[in-house]
Amino acid sequence: MSRIRSWTDSPSKPTYRPPAGAVDTHCHVFGPQAGFPFSVKAKYLPQDAGPDMLFALRDHLGFSRNVVVQASCHGTDNRAILNAIAKSEGRARGVAVVDPSISNPELDALHAGGIRGVRFNFLRRLVDDAPKDKFLEVARRIERLGWHVVIYFEADLLDELTPFMEAIPTDIVIDHMGRPDVSTGPDGPEMLAFRNFLRAHPNVWTKVSCAERLSAQGAPFDDFVESVAPLVEEFQDRVLWGTDWPHPNMQDAIPDDGALVDLIPRLARSKELQTKLLISNPMRLYWPEEWEEEQQ
Ligand code: 0GY
Fold it and tell me: Is the dihedral of CA 37, 42, 47, 51 positive or negative?
């Protein structure tokens, strides 16, 4: 497998300036491979995109913090994201992918390293298996740490996964809204099904991210904006935003990260909504102690 490159080295400077303290809640690191090898089960082999590059992009885009999500190419070896968190000077936290047989002391060590959630990935093109029964056991075991569960699936699985998600005792964050078809507007069948799911499940949050994957039209992503802005308004206390840098598997349509940031004021159409999306919501989930202290 040859190593692919799915990001640009020269993203534009966004016109929109995120408020001070803004959090990019969905990004990854790839390696660097010399220190942090990819999994033998990886479905893609990316070029190195390590913490220095991530933090340079964070600063360029005007963000303050990152939530680094374990990418499938690193399997259940979380050392690359732990390395990024350790180098961030307190400005990154992480979401791990764990082997269901992980011990409690190993979970405690991940917590000490800045991990605040586990990710369950149901995309067949990214992982070989997704054992719901074992995931559920993991979800029950991480509850004591105050973590949440991040789930990545595509819209055709929403109904099938609903009983599984209802059995999870913690908060749940759904990556990229469960990848709905945004081309049919906010009340198109998949967007409506997802909004109804959020209405019925107050412990479920979502990332309103990945216009570049979900838009049928491409930049400037009008279909995505039209479908997603009403969701941001309705669920304003349960939405997060992220760049998805370094955009795994997007080598044939590499997005401009600056243009993605410029979507934020179109999705969250007031300063108040932007503050919730970029600061209050992610801080409550990933830096709760710091957030509570700041509120006093
Ligand atoms: C994303 C999307 C993708 C990849 C991964 O873990 C991963 O490899 O999440 C994808 O290919 O859709 O959220 O980064």
Answer: negative
Q: Is 49 in the pocket of ligand 1 (CB under 6 A)?
A: no
Residue type at position 95: V
Q: Spell out the long-range contacts of 15-21 with Cβ–Cβ below 8 A and sequence spacing 24 or more.
A: 15/262, 16/261, 16/262, 16/264, 16/265, 17/62, 18/61, 18/62, 18/63, 18/261, 18/264, 18/274, 18/278, 19/271, 19/274, 19/275, 19/278, 19/279, 20/64, 21/64, 21/65, 21/278, 21/279, 21/283
Closest ligand 1 atom to 43 CA: 8
Residue with tokens 């690359």: 80
Only one residue has tokens 């999705």, namely: 267
User: In this predicted structure, what is the pLDDT of residue 145?
Assistant: 98
**Ligand 1 within 6 A of CB of 244:** yes
- Would you say the CB of residue 71 lies under 6 angstroms from ligand 1? yes
Please give the domain boundaries of the chain with CATH numbers for all domains.
Answer: 23-295 (3.20.20.140)
Q: How far is the CA of 71 from the centre of ligand 1 (A)?
A: 6
- Is 244 designated active site? yes
Residue keyed to tokens 């942090």:
36
pTM of the model as a whole: 0.98
Among candidate residues 24, 171, 244, 257, the one labeled active-site is: 244
**Segments in the chain below pLDDT 50:** none
How many CB atoms sit inside 10 A of residue 126's CB? 17
